[in-house]
Amino acid sequence: MQNIEAYQKSFISYLEDFTTEREPKNLYEPVNYILKLGGKRLRPVLTVMTADIFGAHINEAMDAALSVEVFHNFSLVHDDIMDDAPLRRGKETVHEKWDVNTGILSGDAMLILAYQLFENYKSDVFQALAKLFSKTALEVCEGQQYDIDFETRNDVTIPEYLKMIEYKTAVLVGAAMKMGAIVASASIKDQELIYDFGRFLGVAFQLQDDYLDAFGNPETFGKQVGGDIIENKKTYLYLKTLELGTEKQKDEFISEMQNENIPNDEKVKMAKRLFEDSGSAEATQQAVRAYTAKAFDVLNDLNISEEKKHVLKVFGEQLMNRRV
Prior knowledge:
The chain has 324 residues and is an all-alpha fold. Helices cover 74% and strands 1% of the residues.
């Protein structure tokens, strides 16, 4: 077993070999740009780490890990276009640096490149990976549509929101881990268990992302802090404020969020105050801890050593306590 930094280093080296100059440049330069922007590399690291945990050499999992990372970044390129987001990881988004049409086409190319990487595996592994990938990719699209729909709805429930983030974010984390297990020829039971571990961890990850969107440090978070508030997104923080707040707090919150004449910085400041005063901020952190605990419960049934379970638990704790 290696540490997380070693997995990251090995994967980034593999990624650098992938992001070479290709023609036409206007198609592939944006692809390489987004892939080289950095980020946590959470999903590919999970793929490689899981393969190692189940006894495969990490090099065997690199193409699957790269596929996950390429797909994830494809989704970010298109999400940023839909959100008209100016920044990604502290840098210009692809559609801002180039244009919207370039972002759409380069994103499409990334989806195809992600599929192509499975061709490097033998047929049974290729089939299992491609089947999981197709299911996951469609669920991510469904999650994105739910997210868009919620922006114009005022009756979104917390269970609906949790389903949305499970599809939009968590299933890809689960799939990343299951891919590592598939490459390592783990048992079907262990493949499903490690998928559930990743899925629960993915929900915790997104809830923490919601929290950091409001309360994170803009220099380390890498995205526009308060972006969800400005876009009127029905995040866990938003929904919990309506659930836990006093009538006065809820009325103020709804009024201010729907007022298009309030400057963005004032809107963000107001929302953050109400998130804290209503107890929503603390409730979000409690939910992060609860889903992390669900992930850890899955480890009890995994057919791996206690030492390897500890590695997975440490990784989960690092995610829960992250500030970037």
